Amino acid sequence: MTKGRISPRAELAQLPRTVHGGQAWKLHDVEDYSHNLNPFGPPEDLDEIVMSAIGDVGHYPDDACTELKEVISKTFNVGFDCISVGAGSSDIIRNVPNTFYERGSKVVIPNPSFAEYTQQCRIVGADIHPFMLEPEEDFRIDADRLLQEAEGARAVYICNPNNPTGRVEPRDKLMRIARELEDQGTLLFLDETLLELVPGYADITLSGMVSRFSNLIVASSLTKSFAIPGIRIGFGFSNPDVIAEMDKVRMTWNVGEIEQRVATVLLRDKMDYVDHAAAVMAEESEIMNSALAQIGFPTGADSDSFFYFNSIESLGMTGAEFNKRMITHGISVRDCASFGDRFTNYIRYSVKDRERNCRFIAAADAVING
Question: Are residues 39 and 92 in the same domain?
Fold first, then answer.
């Protein structure tokens, strides 16, 4: 008797793993500009916060994350029952399709944008409709065109600021989109994971408005703002009915005792750390962009956020080639080919402090003019 292969669901048969940046830690003496983290790293006393939770790891964590949710509620100005806590925002991104989509559900996702949206939607069999962000529109969302594309959709995704383009959409545009989608019964998934590191965050975020909508889910996390990707803490904000349904698919004990303690202390006591980083990067962004233009690097306008998405086609290189050459000078950038064939000549790079940005500029000068 021949043993047959155990086949996966049809949705998984041709589904590759997603590609992400932030891999330069595997290289020796290379500064990683491919990720979008707080450039000052985790707070200095993070080890003390972690150790303060060690005595409690001998029992199951609070599945309801009660203490943490109380702090989140105050920090983000959302109701306690409007919060779902996850193992990073990726946990929220995974839970939403598993809660609300069916095979064949129409889901509209901008292109380029964060790859996990499409990945998790495809896993449940959703029908992905890419909404093309165009360079001639500076990769910004045309609300009329998006709403037209969203007719009959189960959900629309927006990343603000968008990863990888760095474009920030204003609150009034997002609220208009949310309202019109609500009228047609379409969910809006708004990812604000990167927004806390943008000056003026409080005037842009929709996190405190989720109770006003029946269709709005806002995702956030501590990964970028506190530079702790190795400690998985994320949040989903929505109206209580949506959160209650998401809790049905959330993995039990998905956020450990250490993660809950770290998140509680950082949100309660350390938000000024994030504000400081946002202010520094906003100032350094203008300086860095101007200096790169002076050496002949193909720059555009100053970024809305703290990272850049630029075509280097004029340099006669692909993103992969440029990154390879930069690595020889101790710098790594994000080759953006994984975002689609349109972007093989694009790179993404972040803003850091003055000293490291000067090293980035010197490396780019050597690659371009050396």
Answer: no
Do 70 and 187 share a domain, yes or no? yes
Domain of residue 29, CATH code: 3.90.1150.10
Per-residue pLDDT tens over the stretch 234-287? 999 999 999 999 999 999 999 999 999 999 999 999 999 999 999 999 999 999
Closest CA to 347 of 40, 112, 131: 112
Residues 57 and 221: their CA atoms lie apart, in Å, by 22
Residue 3 counted as domain residue: no
CA distances from 68 to 92, 190, 261, 304 (A): 16, 22, 8, 31
Domain residues for the domain of 359 are 10-43+272-369
Q: Which of 250, 270, 290 is the last residue of a domain?
A: 270
**Contact (CB, 8 A) for 354 and 284:** yes
Q: E strands along the chain, which residues?
A: 31-32, 83-86, 106-111, 127-132, 155-159, 187-191, 216-221, 234-237, 307-311, 331-332, 334-335, 346-350
Model confidence over 129-169: pLDDT tens digits?
999 999 999 999 999 999 999 999 999 999 999 999 999 99
